[in-house]
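for the recovery benchmark. tokens below, seq after
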């Protein structure tokens, strides 16, 4: 494992999905799941998210579309929050989901809109 890449990944991961979330992921990891946390932090967040080729906002847009299409509601909720931290507006999030309605199907978009509304209500203190 590259300490430099891991440290960069840890910094990015915490800035996007929150230090509390990341700290809990490591705290709750056991001997079985710790290698996954290390892999995610170093390669996903350090190596890929840490590359200069795309800004974090663009990476968030891509993730929202992919997670929606892959039907990963837990991850989608986490990444909607991260997308807002990365500078996406609610309107831009809506537009990503409108785009997936056409290319991935209306049921995918309906679920994504529902999840986004839940996240927005939570952020706005209405839930």
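predicted aa per position
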């Amino acid at each position: 494992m590259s300490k430099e890449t891991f440290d960069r990944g840890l910094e990015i991961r915490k800035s996007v999905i929150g230090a509390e979330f990341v700290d809990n992921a490591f705290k709750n990891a056991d001997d079985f799941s710790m290698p996954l946390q290390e892999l995610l932090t170093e390669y996903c967040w350090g190596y890929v998210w840490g590359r200069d080729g795309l800004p974090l906002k663009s990476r968030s847009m891509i993730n929202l579309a992919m997670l929606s299409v892959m039907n990963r509601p837990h991850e989608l909720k986490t990444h909607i929050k991260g997308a807002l931290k990365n500078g996406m507006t609610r309107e831009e999030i809506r537009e990503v989901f409108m785009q997936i309605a056409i290319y991935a199907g209306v049921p995918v978009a309906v679920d994504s809109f529902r999840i986004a509304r839940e996240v927005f209500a939570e952020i706005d203190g209405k839930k």
